[in-house]
Structures are given as structure tokens and as C-alpha cells.
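Field: COMPLEX_INPUT
Field: COMPONENT_COUNT = three
Field: RESIDUE_TOTAL = 789
Field: MODE = joint
Values follow.
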Amino acid sequence: MKAVLVSAGVAPDRLVDLSHDLPAHGVEEAAFLLREMARGFPPDTVHVAVVDPGVGGRRRAVAVVTRAGPLLVGPDNGVLAPLAEELGLSAAFRIEATRLHRPNRIGTTFDGRDVFAPAAALLAQGWDPAELGPPVTPARYVLPSPERTPTGAVGEVLHVDRFGNLITNIPTRWVRAGVSRMTVRFATGSGRELPWVTSYEAIGRGSLGCLGSSFGLVELAVREGRASDRLRARVGSAVGLEWGRTPASTSANAKSARPRKRR
Amino acid sequence: MKAVLVSAGVAPDRLVDLSHDLPAHGVEEAAFLLREMARGFPPDTVHVAVVDPGVGGRRRAVAVVTRAGPLLVGPDNGVLAPLAEELGLSAAFRIEATRLHRPNRIGTTFDGRDVFAPAAALLAQGWDPAELGPPVTPARYVLPSPERTPTGAVGEVLHVDRFGNLITNIPTRWVRAGVSRMTVRFATGSGRELPWVTSYEAIGRGSLGCLGSSFGLVELAVREGRASDRLRARVGSAVGLEWGRTPASTSANAKSARPRKRR
Amino acid sequence: MKAVLVSAGVAPDRLVDLSHDLPAHGVEEAAFLLREMARGFPPDTVHVAVVDPGVGGRRRAVAVVTRAGPLLVGPDNGVLAPLAEELGLSAAFRIEATRLHRPNRIGTTFDGRDVFAPAAALLAQGWDPAELGPPVTPARYVLPSPERTPTGAVGEVLHVDRFGNLITNIPTRWVRAGVSRMTVRFATGSGRELPWVTSYEAIGRGSLGCLGSSFGLVELAVREGRASDRLRARVGSAVGLEWGRTPASTSANAKSARPRKRR
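Field: COMPLEX_OUTPUT
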């Protein structure tokens, strides 16, 4: 991909590698991380995402125009959707390989090199996205939503980071102020009461704790260990948190915080 | 290596990282990947390869001049040879450490930092390769050749990618047009009939299939799984493919497609 | 972090990635590697290190000014200390998040993005480090010192590289000239006599040997294998080397080369 970009006239100093370590085939996790990592790049950025288990199949290749400015290029499998939503979807165009002025393709399994990088190079040099192909309505993918319960929240794991920390989709700001412990419950298994802390250091070495992650979302972590192994959890695992009623609120028929069994 | 290059006057914006994840000690696989990844870089590129299990021993360090323009720098263990052949070998020079104007070496195990990066920095700034040392004939290494059989082809695995897909050395264009299945046979074990498809999506989830890889070579893959684990295959594993006789051709004493046991 | 740097006006061509593969939580090993990898970068470099198990806790964030020129930014947990010592500690300032003109933090677990990258961006653009916060005395961390014994040296493992090679803290130049073998002893287990060589190639395939690493320190390696697995050693493992008395030196009450049991 870099050779294609550089040989198409994109200077190496305009390339920024965001990640080469995303889990294979994890479209949902990549969609979340792309949205998070893309934040802060300037309006003239072209973001290219290649998490593409359906390459060569029926899924389209698309270029997405956003109201905030950045252009997004990748497979139309939802990986671009959360970022497009955040930046404001303005238009999208199917990328037709025949318009890329590239030599014949030699395979059907690496559109990153054969389709996305050539398209991104053209866009980076000022091509109008509408020249890549006809307008399309891009695939939708909405990250799973958490729900409040009378005593906490239910949600799921969006991301397992390289330390094995579990990042849920439950906003840190939902956690009741003043809480020092909360009960964490997975779909299977009973709840565990864990400390709610502001640093890994405040968790006993090798123990579990909850804290506000750098994504603004509740995180479960083992200090200097891997929460994903300890809790046998992964992307998509349902999780419930209970931090108790706020003193002001009382509700006779509160929903349980036990998460629904997922799929 | 980057510190050496930058401190020798090579601007960071001229550095492009190709890969830091090559398998340790795999000279043959690296030789293949270097040739593939280098394609498309401009004629004034200096390619540096450091897959070098013989560092500190008898193997020489070389700078290779190609007819197409790029210069190649690395150990003379064959890792540069396939790329040199593709670009057209014009001349090669042994790199003598004493000509690099570097402080004394502090070890003998990292010529990437101590020899190749300094030499590449000089070449990137216009030094004549002949100033690095005397002319030499570089080590030859020819990637293993596939062979056609009356009903298919035999070859071997050149590369296991990070998804565990097996890239063989059998050209995709050899596969008979209109084929929808082929029999795959490893040196040990009986043949398996697998679908010949154009996308991972066309393989059942968790099942095996064959397709034309992005290298223009036949690839064996498990959809969202690891073919290398499933087939217990690795770089160098012999593989035979049978897609049947073309209707026009009949040959009484066809060679069997069972691959030779390797080494 | 890259988004923060780029959006704060640092051109992508001024960013150099040193490593994204350091072992999690390994402050001591990272401190050693940062010192080694930073060598050779120009005086106007801002080095940023984010190995930070204490993030969000009591440890401070610091910017260190060195006499040699480079500025260092990171957690004040010792990771910067060996490099600061090598470059000459001139002054250090606590980084106060409120001075960074950043939007409110959304978590307490990723100061790389929220504190160190913004501070580094300001320093790269010419801010005076004293504007980041009050002067402080940075945390000290001295890499463990090896000791000579009458017949060799004792020390410990500083680094396990990606090949599983063990880099000790015993200087290669301490090894007696002319030695061809040495006895290697870990805290537990008896000694092994290993060849002292100048290349991996001089070790039998799959066997253990000792050589002078690229760090100028004695290294234990398995040729095309992993010494860390073979010897069950890791960072901090105590190691003793015996290469015998130099002919000139004799000492009646020599200390044993058996390493002390560590912590």
C-alpha cells in the first residue's frame, strides 16, 4: 500500500500509520477504534481502513465524504460508519476499479493495495470523489448502545486492548458520583464486587478493578495482568454494572442489571 | 537504524517502514516478500533488508546496483537476490565497514545499525556504490519454481501471512479456466478437494478454500481461521494441486501431482 | 498520540516511531532501551516515552532538559532516568495538565495522549519547558551494575530481545581476551560451559552460546532459537559468567561468581 501511495505521488511525509495490529476479521472493533484514533486529524485527511474479511465478494468499495472535511476510503462493511456518523455523512461513492487507471489486478484478496490505496492517492491529490464511481448509500453500522438500569447500566465489551483491558460501551460519566465499588456481571457467572478507581496503581497487583478508560468508557482491568483472560471476555461480551441507586431516585419495579445473553 | 539514518542526514520524511514483523531467521520468505513489497517504489529508492541470521560470520555485506535504478543494501545471504533479479542486476560491491567513517563497532550482531544503515545513508546522499568496497558477485538465490503436471501443478509454500493464509509459488494464471474445485495435496496426507473461489466470503466460515492471492499466486485459506494451523504447513512445505485435464489435452503417461518430499 | 501531535502543528515528517513493541509494564527494560535507541538523534529531538503502569496515580509527569540538548517527556517513574543521566540532567519540570490548553480529559489512563503528546508538541514548537510547570527533582533510576569477580563477572539480564536473546549488563570489554569458552550460571541451576563466539553462525544450530551484543554487553543466544525459553530467564534474572583468571592476576580469597539470589 505504501509503495502504491508513494509511486502515485503521495509524499512519505504525508503518511501516518495508525495501527497495523488490529485483530484479524474484527470489523466492529476496528470501526470503534478507527473513530477513536481518527479524532484530531485535520480536515484534509484521507483515512484509509482495511479490515476487510469480505474482500473479493459482494461488498462494495466506497469513498465517503464527510461534512467535517475528512474523506474515508475502505470496504463498505460498516468499518467506516461510526467515523462517518461522527464527522457527518455528506455523500458516498462506489469506487470502480476501472476508474483508477491501474494495471490489471493480479488477485482479488487485497483491495487495500489494489483499490483503496490508489483511490486514496487520487483523493489526496485533489480528485473529486464523484469521479471514482456512482453515488451510493453506504452500509450502516451503529456501535451497540448501553442502557441505564435503576442501579447501574448494561452494555458490552467494544475493545480488548493490547494489555488485555476490556473497554465497555458504558460511559464513565454515567457512574454515580462518589461510588467506590461496583458489581460487575457477565452473561454467565455471578457478579463480582470490584473497586472503582482512577488509576491501575489503586488496584492490588494482579487484582481486578474498574476505571474510566481513555475512551471515556468504563474499563475493566487487572493490574499488570490481562482482564480478558481472567474474565474470559472478548469483544461483544455482554456486561452489567451495578453501582447502586442514587439516594434521590427510587423505583419500585427496577430492571435487573443482568445483561441479556447475546446472540 | 533510524537514529543512524537521521543523524547521517537522511530526513525522516524519506524513510518508509515496509515491515518489522518478518519471521525471525526466514531468509527465503523475506527474499520473496522484499521483492513483492519493493515493487512500485521509485528508481531513486535505497532498499535496506536486515534478515540476517549469519551476522558477524562469513557472509559479506553488499550494495547492489540495479538496472531499473533502486540500490539494495543488506547481507549477501540471498535475501536481496530475487529483487535484484527482477530489477536487473547491474553491479554489486562488498561494503567494507572501514569505509563508512563510523565510530568503532561495539558488537558483531547488528549490522543493520552498524553497516547497512550507514551505507544506505551514504548512498541516499549520492555516494557512488563503488566507494563502499570492491566489486563482488552477489550470492544467488532463486525462489523455488513450480512445475506443471498434466492435471495441475506442484510447488511449495513461499509465505505464511499474518492471517495464516498459505501463499504457494503456483501462478494463479496456470489454473484452468472454469474450474470450481481442485484437489490439494501435501507431501504427507491424502488430498482434499477444495473450492476454487474469488473471495474468502465464498468459503464456508471456518472451512478451507483456494483462491488467487494478491501475489498472483494460488493461496490456501481458512475463512476467518488459520490455514497454516489447519494444514500444519509452513514455508517450504511442498504442495500439489490438481484441477483436472484441460479438455483439449490428453497425455497417456501423465506425471502424478503428488509433490516430492522436500529435503 | 499522532493525531494530537499532528493537530498541534507537528509535521508528520518530524515523527519517528522508535518502538511500539516494548513489553507491557516493563519500566526497567524500557529505560534501558530508550537510552540505547535514543543515541544518535540530533540535539533538537524531543523524546517521548510512554511505559507508564502508574498512570493516573501519584507519579508525576515530567519534562527533562538535558545538557546535550534533547528534551525528554514522560512519566516520572524512572523510564527517562538512564537517558537523562547519559545526556546530562540539566533541569526538570512537572507537567501540569492545566497548562496544556487541552480540552478536559476524558480518562486517567492514557497520559501519552492527554499529557505527554500535548507537552511534546509545545516543546517541539519552541515552548520553554519551565512554562509547563514548577521545577522538580526527577525520579532516579540507575540500571543495575555488574560486578567483576576474580574469575569473571556477575550481573543480570537487562533485556530480552524479540528473538529471545538475553542481553546482560556485563560489558563485552570485561571478557578476558583470548577466551573461547565461559561458564554461565543462573541463580538456580548449575553452570553450563558455553562457547564465546563472534557470530550466531559459530554456535551449533539450536545450541547455546555467548557473544558480544550490539549493546556492547554480553549476550546469551540460542542459534535460531530462543535463549529466554531454554534458560527460563527474563529481565532481572541474575547471571554469573566465569572465564577464568587472567594469567597475571591471582587472588587468595576470590569471590564466587555465583550470582546473588535476586529479590
